[in-house]
């Protein structure tokens, strides 16, 4: 061996050892990460199993419990456990769409239990029909629980690998191993799909999710009419010089519409910063929304000016009975929700939000979907409860500063006719109380949150 | 250069805060719902306080929005010198004094309800705009708002987790979350605007819960079985 070869071999050998060591530690680190990822999936899965077991037990108990207190306890447990089960299911590495119906089942089961709980809490007993729905829900939950137990066996004997499940759930992977996704979870989804969905008084009920627009009136409009409408609607100051309307797309579904872009003349540089686009409904040619994207400079105008500009804008476009509610002002714009006022009653469901730039007072947005969804002629009755009586329902800790009548939307998709009381606690925390003007029940309590971006309610 | 940007930014922040506070002051002059800031508080208001104290020479630490011991000391020192109750906490009087404000008329229009649909607060704006930036970069503005709206529609849907974080982190729900891109970029101003518009109720997708880019490979044909509502920019939106 030549003597120069010795150091070379030594260096090479060292290099191999170093690479080996590096590879080994990397491998170990990766292994550890994989185990911890698999562990968190396992945690979610076993959490789901436990939640499901509790849902089953509590549902069974609520079917036999007879006292109000017991009902409240059991139903609130069903609600809580079903929500937790839904959250845990959402943490599992399942391919898109393979657990949606199961998620929906859990959401609705919890939501339904909550709606019954609310009824119970108001002193009402459950109807025959509600009892039957509950008992049906129970057998469906039992079935779901059973199927999950089946998967548990696969998890325990290692037939289900979280690593494989995670890998194959990726929608970007184009491969055959989709078989792996056809685990027990796919069977569950198939089973759940056979159950009819629940209709009840809650935000997740199908009838609330599928509401039809009430304010979509008038004859069909053509694309040309929609383009003209869009051009007329955009305020002169906001639109570019010699603006023209261009169809940018079409909306299908429950509110068919044209999407119209407003641009400068061809040849002018259209950039994103000045693009204005509107959705115009095909039925009636209503403007559903207007989006304007531009950067807003330093604040130069006051909120009062912004509100006045927004009001004027609405007046000119035929919305003459709108009143401003609260204001939010993040990032140099003011977002002002207007509600319709009819005979002194504020109709909150008929809401339009206007966005105003606080640098020069231009209108930067119009959001009228809520208005189109809810606007219709309402028969507003005389309140059965006097203001005096309604006042008594408001917590004595609130110093009422302002009151009036209002129609408010409820989470159930319905509306309530209410006395509205605005006030604050002795500590200065503002609240709004809504007392049903027919039944006298407190329908909603809103806490007003004030921060550097304005006021919102929760 | 960077310093100047920071300076301009903080001044703007201060200005907005000043305008804001002026409008929030209740008529009575009693500290209204302005929540006092004290040790442990965090957020934009704390930054405003720190910036102001720094300008006045009471505070030399970095403006980080965290009300720590140094901030409390600076506040206390300021209060002592201004003849205010030296509590070390910023209540309405100290706040007004710091910002050079006087108690004014309440100029807000009447208050009313907002739809709090499981989404509120600046954390959510941040998370949502990150996702918009990562998933809808280069899309027209309407397309960016649409992506934000889909995410919010998922929060409202019974078929998905019921809060924003749950929806965003659902395994494989969003490519940019799966590959980590979403955390590596800071959202630009447009993405933030789009997220805010979506939170304020703009929904160019009319309730869609899916979007995808048809020019990219997707293994599941299943997605095409959903009912398509709109096509905006490169994305298809479906229910």
Quickly describe the structure:
The complex is a heterodimer of chains A (458) and B (239). Chain A has 11 helices and 13 strands.
Q: Would you mind describing this structure in some detail?
A:
The complex is a heterodimer of chains A (458) and B (239). Chain A has helices at residues 5-64, 68-89, 100-121, 128-156, 162-168, 184-193, 206-209, 223-233, 303-316, 369-374, 387-393; strands at 244-251, 257-263, 276-281, 287-292, 322-324, 333-342, 345-357, 363-367, 399-409, 415-424, 430-436, 442-451, 454-457. By secondary structure, chain A is an alpha+beta fold. In chain A, strands 1, 2, 3, 4, 5, 6, 7, 8, 9, 10, 11, 12 and 13 form a 13-stranded mixed beta sheet that branches. In chain A, helix 1 runs antiparallel to helix 2 and helix 2 packs antiparallel against helix 3 (100-121). The longest helix of chain A is centred in the first third of the chain and has 60 residues, at 5-64. Helices cover 47% and strands 5% of the residues of chain B. Chain B has ten helices and three strands. Chain B has helices spanning 2-24, 44-55, 69-82, 92-98, 121-135, 141-156, 164-169, 175-178, 181-184, 189-199, and strands spanning 210-212, 228-232, 235-238. Chain B is elongated and about 70 Å long. The model of chain B is unreliable at 19-33 and 101-119 (pLDDT under 50).
Present the secondary structure layout:
The complex is a heterodimer of chains A (458) and B (239).
Chain A: H1 5-64, H2 68-89, H3 100-121, H4 128-156, H5 162-168, H6 184-193, H7 206-209, H8 223-233, E1 244-251, E2 257-263, E3 276-281, E4 287-292, H9 303-316, E5 322-324, E6 333-342, E7 345-357, E8 363-367, H10 369-374, H11 387-393, E9 399-409, E10 415-424, E11 430-436, E12 442-451, E13 454-457
Parallel strand pairs in A: 7-9
Antiparallel strand pairs in A: 1-2, 2-3, 3-4, 4-8, 5-6, 6-7, 7-8, 9-10, 10-11, 11-12, 12-13
Helix pairs in contact in A: 1-2, 1-4, 2-3, 3-6, 4-6
Chain B: H1 2-24, H2 44-55, H3 69-82, H4 92-98, H5 121-135, H6 141-156, H7 164-169, H8 175-178, H9 181-184, H10 189-199, E1 210-212, E2 228-232, E3 235-238
Antiparallel strand pairs in B: 1-3, 2-3
Helix pairs in contact in B: 1-2, 5-6, 5-10, 6-10
């Amino acid at each position: 061996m030549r003597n120069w070869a010795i150091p070379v071999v030594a260096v090479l050998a060292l290099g191999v050892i170093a690479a080996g060591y590096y590879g080994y530690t990397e491998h170990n680190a990766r292994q550890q990460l994989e185990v911890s990822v698999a562990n968190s999936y396992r945690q979610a899965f076993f959490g789901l199993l436990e939640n499901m077991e509790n849902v089953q037990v509590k549902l069974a108990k609520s079917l036999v419990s007879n006292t109000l207190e017991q009902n409240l306890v059991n139903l609130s447990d069903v609600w809580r456990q079903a929500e937790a089960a839904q959250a845990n299911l959402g943490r599992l590495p399942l391919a898109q769409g393979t657990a949606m119906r199961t998620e929906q089942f859990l959401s609705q089961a919890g939501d339904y239990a909550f709606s019954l709980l609310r009824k119970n809490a108001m002193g009402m007993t459950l109807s025959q029909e509600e009892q039957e729905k509950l008992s049906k829900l129970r057998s469906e939950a039992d079935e779901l629980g059973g199927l999950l137990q089946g998967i548990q066996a696969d998890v325990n004997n290692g037939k289900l690998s979280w690593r494989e499940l995670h890998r194959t759930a990726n929608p970007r992977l184009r491969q055959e191993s989709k078989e792996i996704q056809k685990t027990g979870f796919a069977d569950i989804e198939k089973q759940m799909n056979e159950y009819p969905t629940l209709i009840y008084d809650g935000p997740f009920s199908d009838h609330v999710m599928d509401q039809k627009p009430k304010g979509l009136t008038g004859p069909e409009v053509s694309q040309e009419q929609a383009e003209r409408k869009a051009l007329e609607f955009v305020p002169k100051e906001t639109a570019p010089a010699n603006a023209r309307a261009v169809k940018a797309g079409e909306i299908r579904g429950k509110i068919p519409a044209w999407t119209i872009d407003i641009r400068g003349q061809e040849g002018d540089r259209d950039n994103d910063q000045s693009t204005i686009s509107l959705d115009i409904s095909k039925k009636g040619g209503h403007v559903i929304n207007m989006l304007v994207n531009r950067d807003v400079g330093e604040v130069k105008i006051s909120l009062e000016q912004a509100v006045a500009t927004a009001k004027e804008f609405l007046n000119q476009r035929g919305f003459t009975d709108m009143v401003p509610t609260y204001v939010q002002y993040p990032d140099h714009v003011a977002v002002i929700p207007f509600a319709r006022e009819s005979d002194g009653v504020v109709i909150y469901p008929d809401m339009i939000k206007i966005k105003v730039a606080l640098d020069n007072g231009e209108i930067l947005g119009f959001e009228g979907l809520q208005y189109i969804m809810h606007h219709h002629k309402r028969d507003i009755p005389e309140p059965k409860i006097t203001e005096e009586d309604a006042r008594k329902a408001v917590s004595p800790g609130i110093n009422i500063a302002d009151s009036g009548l209002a129609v408010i939307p409820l989470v159930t998709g319905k509306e309530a006719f209410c006395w509205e009381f605005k006030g604050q606690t002795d500590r200065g925390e503002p609240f709004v109380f809504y007392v049903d003007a027919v039944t006298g029940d407190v329908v909603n309590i809103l806490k007003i949150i004030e921060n550097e971006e304005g006021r919102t309610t929760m | 250069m960077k310093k100047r940007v920071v300076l301009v930014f903080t001044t703007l922040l201060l200005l907005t805060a000043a305008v804001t506070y002026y409008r929030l002051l209740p008529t009575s002059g009693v500290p209204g719902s302005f929540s006092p800031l004290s040790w442990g508080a965090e957020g934009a208001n704390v930054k405003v306080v720190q910036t102001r104290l720094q300008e006045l020479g009471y505070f030399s630490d970095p403006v980080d929005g965290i009300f720590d011991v140094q901030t409390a000391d600076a506040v206390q020192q300021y209060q002592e010198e201004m003849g205010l109750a030296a509590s070390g906490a910023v209540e309405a009087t100290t706040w007004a004094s710091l910002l050079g404000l006087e108690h004014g008329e309440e100029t807000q229009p009447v208050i009313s309800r907002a739809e709090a649909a499981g989404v509120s607060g600046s954390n959510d704006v941040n998370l949502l705009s990150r996702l918009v930036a990562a998933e809808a970069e280069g899309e027209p503005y309407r397309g960016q708002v649409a992506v934000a709206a889909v995410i919010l529609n998922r929060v409202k849907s019974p078929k998905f987790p019921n809060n924003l974080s749950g929806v965003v982190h659902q395994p494989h729900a969003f490519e940019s979350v799966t590959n980590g891109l979403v955390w590596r970029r800071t959202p630009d101003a447009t993405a933030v605007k789009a997220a805010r518009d979506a939170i304020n109720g703009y929904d160019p997708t009319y309730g869609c819960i899916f979007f995808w880019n048809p020019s990219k490979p997707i293994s599941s044909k299943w997605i095409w079985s959903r009912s398509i509502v709109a096509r905006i920019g490169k994305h298809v939106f479906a229910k």
